Amino acid sequence: MSLSDQQRQTLGKKLYQALRSSQSIPPLTDRFENIDIEDAYRISEQMLKLRQENDGERVVGKKIGVTSAAVQEMLGVFQPDFGFLTDAMTLKNGGQAKIDGQLIAPKAEAEIAFLLSSDLQGPGVTEADVLAATDCIMPCFEIVDSRIDDWKIKIQDTVADNASCGVYVCGEEKIDPNSVDLPELAVKVYKNSELISSGKGSAVQGNPLTAVAWLANTLGEFGIPFRAGEVILSGSLVPLEAVIAGDKMHMELEDQGRIIGTATIQFT
Question: Which of 72, 109, 174, 223 is most buried, by the most CB atoms less than 10 A from its CB?
Fold first, then answer.
């Protein structure tokens, strides 16, 4: 038996309070062994509702996470999570993310972001549908941040916690997805000017298009569409990297050895 509506609302409020206080809470799965994915999604909806009603935030996109083997091994979560992006989570390229009083245990991941030119509604969305609905792709850093103690998460914990999303920044380059081989795009990630990791588009379910189609279909089961103008984050191409105040992260997106986009974020 899954959770009651009252339990879902209570847990959504607790996660919202954890977000606003920058104080993590124990794993939901430790307290409620019967929590399932639908419970988790409904809890995240309650958390989002409070962000909208109390803080005036608006949804500007969606995200998929835990898509690559490297990230799954690091977190011990072996299926993708999914969540919402709001305008308050959006930073300008080169901007600063405040750790003190805003984030708890942030980690940076380099991704490919999709900007949509038309709506998509699952189920039944294919990779071809995603490509046709995409205006452009952009290099992106997502800064994930768990409101769950010490990142001790199961899939239900991270889905409930809005897919452990903190903030994100997209590069300024807008790349035609039809002009590149998405699985073969390469990324190099630098921390404080030192190369720390590299990866390919194929790290996310073999193709970022596949990941975005999965997300459209998964959210479609809950009646949630993708909207034109939204940004969709397709998942990390590299292992997560913990960051602290003073760090600077920089990524380069390459097509056949040629840099086609960059993104930078600093931490204070």
Answer: 109
